[in-house]
Amino acid sequence: MLFLPREEGQGLVEYALILVLVAIVVIAILLLLGPIIGSVFSNVSSGLGN
């Protein structure tokens, strides 16, 4: 029981690190696939316009 606050703090730090890593991966994927996704939406938009 004496170490409970310390363990909770470690858990929060671990969750924060996981969230940061997931955010970095998502940003990297969006940067890599962003132009491809944009061109797909552009093609769909122009296809619907015709």
How is the secondary structure organized here?
Layout: H1 4-49
Structure description:
With 50 residues, this protein is mainly α. It contains 1 helix and no strands. The radius of gyration is 21 Å and the shape is rod-shaped. The protein starts with a helix and ends with a helix.
Defining traits:
rod-shaped
Task: Name the beta content range.
Answer: under 5%
- In total, the number of strands is 0
Low-confidence stretches: none
Q: Secondary-structure element sequence?
A: H
For the residues shown, what is the average pLDDT? Answer: 84
Count up the helices.
1
Spatial separation of the terminal alpha carbons: 69 Å
Describe, in short, the structure shown.
The chain has about 50 residues and is mainly alpha-helical. Helix content is about 90%, strand content about 0%. It is rod-shaped.
